[in-house]
Structures are given as C-alpha cells and as structure tokens.
C-alpha cells in the first residue's frame, strides 16, 4: 500500500511538471525597473512600442512594466528623460528571452512549456532591471556644449517622430 502511495505521488508530481512551463514557475511576466538619472529629479515619460504613454514621473523611481504583449509577443519600451538645462535623452527598455524559458523547459517543462504555458503567460520574456543615465548639460541656445548625438530612428519616441523632417 505504501509503494502505491509513493507511485501515485510521483505520477502526480510528474504530471504537474509536464503541464506547466518552467519560466512560468520560476520567472514572472512583469518586472520592476529601477530608473535613475544624474542629475536626479529628471522628468521621465515611458512609451510602449505603440507610442502610448504608460508612465510619467521623476527620477529616481521604480516602475513595474509588463514584458508580455500577446501570445509569443513581448513588449519594448522607450524612456524619454527631460530636465531644464539638460539635453533630452531617450533610452530603450528591450525585452529578451528569459533563460528559464530556454534551459528550464529543456529540463522540466517540455513542449507544453515552450509552446503554450510560457508564451501565454509572458514568462518567456524578461526586461532589464536597471536604467541609469547621465544627462548632458546645454548652453543657453539649447545646444549641447561639446556633444553631437546621433540616434537611431527606433530610439526616438513615436510621438516625437511625427515632428521630424526628412532631409535629403
């Protein structure tokens, strides 16, 4: 009788492991992001990948952001930093695949974790934990004193892109 209970317990344990994804067990789908700047008290606005404002505030702060945008889709964000007397600065928050999604499902979760549970819960994605920027001071004309900054179009927040002018 005792052997039967042990066998049933092992069967239940294996079944639970097989119907869950490893990243869903170990990881999460939303992450606290520590955002700081030098100097402090910079205004920040966080935009999602569709250009929607998801947070406004001042540094330093901690903001919890969702890594999941949909089934097998992760979210990216852009933070715009502004402070009077300093150049505007944008920083990306990009998702990446969680290590537990890859390695953990190899060991424990299997195909159910890879194809269903972790993509559905968003636990397959992770976001970076810390954003720390140093703002450059400006002279009275609004231009940086000694710096030319070139940015990729993807680093420009979507609401600002509509104000850009194409130069040939």
How does this model look, in words?
By secondary structure, this protein is α+β, with helices and mostly antiparallel strands. The chain has one domain (2-161). Helices cover 30% and strands 32% of the residues. The protein has 4 helices and 11 strands. It has helices at 2-19, 22-26, 99-121, 158-161, and strands at 30-38, 43-48, 53-58, 61-66, 68-70, 73-74, 77-82, 89-93, 95-97, 125-127, 130-134. The strands form 4 sheets. It has a 4-stranded antiparallel β-sheet with strand order 3-2-7-8, with no helix packed on it. A hairpin with a 2-residue loop joins strand 5 and strand 6. It is elongated and about 80 Å long.
Short key terms for the protein model shown above:
3-stranded mixed sheet; 11 strands; 32% strand; single chain; 4 helices; alpha+beta; elongated; 4-stranded antiparallel sheet; 168 residues
Can I get a quick summary?
The chain is an alpha+beta fold. It has four helices and eleven strands, in the order H-H-E-E-E-E-E-E-E-E-E-H-E-E-H. It has one domain (2-161).
What is the mean predicted local confidence, pLDDT? 76
Number of helices: 4
Ends distance: 83 Å
Task: Report Rg.
Answer: 22 Å
The number of distinct β-strands equals: 11
Assign the structural class, choosing from mainly alpha, mainly beta, alpha/beta, alpha+beta, or little secondary structure: alpha+beta
Rough shape?
elongated
* Beta-strand residue fraction: 25-35%
Side-by-side strand order of the widest sheet: 3-2-7-8
């Amino acid at each position: 009788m005792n052997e039967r209970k042990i066998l049933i317990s092992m069967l239940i344990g294996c079944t639970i492991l097989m119907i869950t994804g490893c990243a869903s067990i170990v990881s999460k789908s939303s992450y606290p992001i520590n955002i700081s700047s030098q100097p402090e008290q910079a205004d920040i606005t966080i935009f999602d990948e569709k250009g929607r404002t998801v947070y406004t505030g001042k540094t330093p702060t901690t903001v919890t952001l969702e890594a999941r945008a949909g089934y097998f889709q992760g979210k990216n964000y852009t933070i715009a930093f502004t402070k009077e007397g300093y150049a505007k600065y944008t920083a990306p928050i990009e998702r990446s695949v969680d290590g537990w999604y890859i390695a953990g499902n190899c060991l424990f979760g299997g195909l159910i974790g890879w194809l269903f549970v972790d993509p559905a819960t968003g636990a397959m994605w992770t976001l970076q934990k810390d954003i720390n920027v140093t703002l450059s001071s400006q002279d009275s004309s609004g231009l940086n004193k000694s710096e030319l900054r070139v940015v990729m179009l993807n680093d420009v927040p979507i609401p600002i892109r509509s104000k850009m002018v194409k130069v040939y």
